[in-house]
Structure formats: structure tokens, C-alpha cells
Amino acid sequence: AGIVIKKLINDSHEDVRMQAIQASRQVKDPVLIAELVNHLKEPNLREFSISALREMPSESAPLFQIEIENP
């Protein structure tokens, strides 16, 4: 599921990206962390991305740190 959501998170339509980011909250797949971090820069998607990142498993925290330090 994470791979499909990853494609949708990068869709050209903002509403599709928003829905994919919201879906990532339920999937909780660490493969999505890099994409979610990238969308922190988009004002309309920032809060959704933060919310999704908060839902990631605690063991994926090192991946989150790597993405923040090396965007």
C-alpha cells in the first residue's frame, strides 16, 4: 500500500496529494517518510504532512531524522 500512496503523494493535483497524505496516516509505512518531509514545504499540505509523520511507528524515527538533516 505504501508504494501506491507514494505515487499518489507526488501527483500533479494538490487534492490527490492531500488525500494520499491523509491515507498515509492509516498505512503508517516508513517508506513514505521522505515524501511527507518533502511536502512540509507546501503550505496547504504542511499540517497534513506533520499529522501523517506523527503517526509513523516510533522505530522509524531515525529515518525521519535522516530526511530532515539531508533533504
What can you see in these coordinates?
This protein has 71 residues and is mainly α. The protein is built from 5 helices and no strands. Helix 1 packs antiparallel against helix 2 and helix 2 packs parallel to helix 4 (46-54). The longest helix is centred in the N-terminal third of the chain and has 14 residues, at 14-27. The N and C termini lie far apart (24 Å).
Q: Uncertain spans, ≥5 residues at pLDDT below 50? A: none
Quaternary structure type: single chain
Strand content range: under 5%
Number of strands: 0
Overall geometry comes to globular
From the N-terminal CA to the C-terminal CA, the straight-line distance is: 24 Å
What's the helix-strand series? HHHHH
Rg, Å, rounded: 11 Å
Proportion in helices: 55-70%
Largest sheet: none
Average of pLDDT? 88
Indicate the structural class: mainly alpha
**Secondary structure tally, helices:** 5
Give the SSE map.
Elements (H helix, E strand, L loop, with lengths): L1 H8 L4 H14 L5 H6 L7 H9 L6 H9 L2
Helix pairs in contact: 1-2, 2-4
Question: How would you briefly describe this protein structure?
Answer:
It contains five helices and no strands.
Summary keywords:
71 residues, mainly alpha
